[in-house]
Specification:
The complex is a heterodimer of chains A (465) and B (448). Chain A has 465 residues and is mostly helical. Chain A has one domain. Chain A has 18 helices and 3 strands. In chain A, strand 2 and strand 3 form a beta hairpin. In chain A, helix 2 packs parallel to helix 8, helix 6 packs parallel to helix 9 and helix 9 runs antiparallel to helix 14. By secondary structure, chain B is mostly helical. Chain B has one domain. Chain B has a two-stranded antiparallel ribbon with strand order 1-2. In chain B, helix 5 packs antiparallel against helix 8. The longest helix of chain B is centred in the N-terminal third of the chain and has 50 residues. Classes of the chains: A mainly alpha (465), B mainly alpha (448). Chains A and B meet through helix 2, helix 3, strand 2, strand 3 and helix 4 of A and helix 2, helix 4, helix 5, helix 10 and helix 11 of B.
Chain lengths: 465, 448
């Protein structure tokens, strides 16, 4: 413990540590304030836009239900209070889906398109700060921890004084843990307070999110200590650690993303649209060549001999059948697109074995509800709602539009009774289930960092001998 | 002098740090070249697919025109579509910038408005976009300075630590020593970058102004490298240990490259919040509904009477005009907020030389926000022009013939080529000032 106390005293007396710690905490608070402003503004906008959207929908006046299905509704994605901690994929993912008849639209309105930014290495948030800056600071502050003792010749003295190599490392570990705690704990406490101020958040998610970053900080500190134990001088340790930081945070995630993109390319919008259109053309056209066959089938099912004897709207039935056929094609193509995203994620996950950051990023996004699986859940729910809404409107046309067809006009009562979209985020268990691979990778990193430190400790033993 | 440079070079590689930096720089540039080429091919492939689609759409409309009857002719202008396609950015393989998520193509038709002009969303995985990619710009702006710091933090402080500083300075003028030590280090970092840029230029497509833009791009990248090296020399002139010099340089790098760019972006977004797309959607739809005010048939092809089709066409044009008029102030407000945000980001970017260089690089590459904004403005103007032409045909008694369709205005736009002189002067000035201070300090050390 005396080694830990001595190291701590050195840190406190070193003004660089105080300056860096204060700056880091200040930056984290600034990041929280900026994220709070961003999420609050987004949520206020979304609530206002969604309310206006519903007012517009319910005040359409007299209109054909299918005209209304074309006018359609918008689903806008709400953000959880935890999104102030980690924006995840939300700046790059569409925040609204147009749920119109005949089309399964991808999400639009991506924040990144409207944000003016030059060069940045990520969205400024407390998660970014903890992912990128915290390990850098830990590396820089603890780089010389053991190496400097060796450089000054005090390591040999410590070992000769009867201290075991394990006791030296434990002392250094305590000091590093204290430094890490001084940096990380105030930031994490500020995060908890900020989330509580924004709204109601799932306490389990929040607790897991905070624990995740404590584990990440611990992995960083353990690696720093091990590298320091291996190095001859403090500056050599610092250079190696900066090199590792460069690889872990800047190179591996980007190289991984680039390789994933090349290995599983996403089709261009033109190719995708063409493929969907081709498949749609191969299906029966209930408004064209197959109209007679379809009408005959409807008459058979309804037990009438002539189309004019039908009490329902044949146009409505055609629309509903067209939707059903279209949904098969859309489902097929969206599943194929999802499969590409899954493949890309799987490839990217493998790069997690080269950098703990990827697993941390994935878990952080999952816990904040801003991951790609959350985005896909939103888009899927919007699509389910679209189908429900279009069927609801088509049903009204079928039941009430007989004889009038497209001249039939529905009123406000229909619009008011149309189902409203509400997003249900996936449960914690579901989210974590999707990130099981990342949990395993992070645990492996924890074990590997401890093993590296133990290996470095054995080196001390050799030095002592 | 040449012998001294050779000696320093040999020493650098004997200490292994030269090999390590060369290896990291080579890996980074090779990855950047591979990814840059892939990104460029992706852009070309996407455009080729779009043009293929367009050729088929043109064939389809030509067939519809040829087979038009008195009943179907009035709705043909509503079916006609026209393409908008941005050319491949000049140096998309050097600096990808916003090419990863900006829409470069769209199809316009009657009824499409400015606010929904680029609604055909790109399908790239947001998870991949959030991670970013590696291009030559990233290597030059983020990695190269860090490697220069690694190579140079002890260029003189190490001599001071080991007590041989005076002996080193006694060998000759300080400037001679610094040049001899600087040149091999700068060569290790600059050579892979220059080779990579040359390779991309040789292998890349022939695009107008590509060569001159690449020369400008390389000038900016090398100037940024020289700025960092002048800073390294300045820090070496302070009475610091090698470890403290490394810590100071890494802190400066972290602030300038890592912290300031996203901080500036976040500050600009808080000061001038980005325009709300959700609000725009909701307000536009309310305006559209107010203009529609009654049932509009979305399937004109299902209406059989020609007179009814004609009446619907007139009504559709009127609704479109009213909706456009109602949405115009919203769009203007939207653009105004965006312009304000842009100007504050531009102004604050001078706090970080990294940001200045990055902006200049992407502007030369044709992948920056300004170029995309110019493309969008040109697309909006073209939308207005072609809608006017289509409306004129729709409301006239003359049908849409093939010759009239082919005579419709076509979209022609070339990204502006502007040499970022301010950025160039700013980086050059900063480098000269810091370099001069460092030189003066070394002279003082030498005289002392």
């Amino acid at each position: 413990m005396s080694i830990a106390r001595k190291d701590w005293l050195e840190f406190v007396r070193d003004r660089r540590f105080v300056v860096i710690a204060v700056m880091a905490i200040f930056l984290a608070l600034a990041a929280l304030a900026a994220s709070w402003a961003r999420v609050s503004a987004y949520e206020a906008d979304r609530a206002a836009a969604q309310a206006q959207e519903w007012r517009t929908w319910t005040s359409q006046g007299a209109r054909n239900p299918h005209g209304a299905a074309h006018f359609a509704q918008w689903a806008m994605r709400p953000l959880d209070a935890l999104a102030i901690l980690d924006p995840g994929v939300t700046p790059y993912a569409g925040s609204a889906v147009w749920m119109e008849a005949h089309h399964w639209n991808p999400a639009r309105a991506r924040q990144v398109e409207d944000a003016e930014s030059g060069f940045d290495l990520g969205a400024f948030s407390v998660a970014w700060m903890l992912q990128m800056l915290l390990p850098l600071i830990i590396f820089v502050l603890t780089a010389a921890s053991v190496a400097r003792e060796r450089e000054r010749g005090t390591l040999r003295l410590l070992l000769m004084s009867g201290l075991s190599p394990g006791a030296v490392v434990r002392g250094k570990m305590f000091a590093a843990a204290r430094v890490t705690a001084v940096l990380a704990v105030p930031i994490i406490l500020a995060c908890v307070i900020a989330v509580a101020m924004v709204g109601v958040a799932d306490p389990v998610r929040l607790l897991l999110w905070c624990s995740l970053y404590l584990v990440y900080a611990a992995i960083s500190a353990t690696i720093a200590l091990a590298v320091s134990a291996f190095s001859r001088t403090g500056s050599q340790a610092m250079l190696v650690l900066i090199g590792l930081w460069l690889v872990f945070t800047l190179l591996v995630p980007r190289v991984g993303a680039s390789i994933a993109q090349s290995a599983a390319p996403v089709p261009s919008p033109a190719l995708y649209a063409a493929a969907v259109a081709d498949d749609r053309e191969k299906q029966p056209d209930v408004f064209g060549d197959d109209a007679e066959r379809f009408t005959a089938q409807v008459m058979r099912e309804r037990g009438v001999a002539r189309p004019e004897d039908l009490t329902v709207s044949i146009g409505g039935l055609q629309l509903e059948e067209d939707e059903r056929l279209g949904n098969i094609v859309f489902e097929h193509h969206f599943n194929a697109l999802d499969a590409i995203y899954h493949r890309q994620r799987a490839i990217l996950r493998w790069f997690g074995t080269l950098s703990p950051l990827l697993a941390v990023q994935n878990l952080s996004m999952v816990l904040a509800g801003t991951s790609m699986p959350d985005q896909i859940a939103f888009q899927r729910q919007a699509e389910s709602h679209r189908r429900r809404m279009v069927t609801y409107l088509n049903t009204d046309l079928i039941e009430n539009g007989g004889g009038e067809e497209f001249d039939y006009l529905a009123g406000d009562s229909l619009w008011r009774s149309t189902p409203r979209f509400s997003y249900r985020p996936p449960s914690v268990a579901n989210s974590l289930g999707q990130a099981a691979g990342d949990i395993v990778i992070l645990l492996t990193w924890t074990v590997a960092a401890i093993a590296l430190l133990l290996f470095a400790t054995r080196r001390f033993t050799r030095e002592a001998l | 002098m040449v012998r001294l440079i050779a000696l320093e070079g040999r020493r650098l590689f004997r200490e292994r740090v030269g090999w390590i930096v060369l290896l990291v720089m080579t890996i980074a540039t090779v990855t950047a070249v591979v990814q840059g080429r892939a990104a460029l091919h992706e852009q070309e492939r996407g455009r080729a697919a779009f043009l293929t689609e367009r050729a088929e759409a043109d064939k389809a409309i030509a067939q519809q025109i040829a087979e038009a009857t008195a009943e179907t002719a009035p709705i043909l202008p509503r079916r006609a579509t026209l393409p908008i396609l941005a050319p491949v950015p000049r140096l998309a393989d050097f600096s990808m910038g916003r090419t990863g998520f900006e829409n470069y193509a769209t199809t316009i038709r009657l009824g499409l408005r400015e606010d929904s002009l680029f609604n055909e969303v790109r399908l790239d995985n947001p998870e991949i976009l959030a991670r970013g990619g590696i291009d030559l710009g990233f290597v030059a702006i983020a990695i190269m300075p860090l490697l220069l710091v690694g190579l140079g933090y002890g260029v003189f402080t190490a001599d001071r630590d080991s007590g041989v500083a005076r002996a080193a300075l006694a060998q000759g003028p300080a400037i001679r020593l610094l040049i001899a030590r600087s040149l091999p280090r700068l060569a290790i970092v600059f050579a892979p970058l220059l080779l990579a840029a040359g390779w991309l230029l040789l292998e890349g497509p022939s695009i107008e102004h590509r060569l001159i833009s690449a020369v400008g791009w390389l000038s900016v990248a090398l100037l940024l490298g020289l700025f960092w090296w002048s800073l390294v020399l300045l820090v070496n002139s302070f009475r610091l240990s090698a470890e403290s010099a490394a810590l100071l340089l890494i802190s400066v790098w972290a602030v300038v490259t890592l912290i300031l760019p996203p901080l500036i972006s976040a500050a600009a977004q808080v000061a001038y919040p980005p325009p709300s797309r959700l609000e725009q959607i909701a307000v536009s739809r309310a305006a559209e509904l107010a203009a529609t005010n009654a049932f509009e048939n979305d399937h004109p092809e299902l209406t059989e009477a020609a007179a009814e089709r004609r009446r619907q066409a007139e009504r559709a044009v009127e609704i479109d005009r009213q909706a456009e008029a109602a949405i115009a102030p919203i769009s203007a407000r939207f653009e105004d907020r965006r312009a304000r945000q842009r100007s504050i980001v531009e102004m604050l970017s001078f706090l970080s030389p990294t940001l200045v260089a990055a902006n200049a690089g992407s502007a030369l590459a044709g992948t920056d926000g300004g170029t995309w904004l110019a493309f969008r403005s040109a697309a909006s103007a073209y939308l207005a022009e072609s809608k006017q032409a289509l409306r004129a045909i729709l409301l006239s008694d003359r049908p849409l013939t093939l010759s009239r369709y082919q005579a419709l205005p076509s979209f022609r736009w070339q990204p502006p080529v502007k040499f970022p002189l301010t950025a160039f002067l700013y980086l050059a000035g900063l480098t000269l000032v810091i370099g001069a201070i460092a030189h003066r300090r070394f002279r003082n050390i030498e005289l002392a």
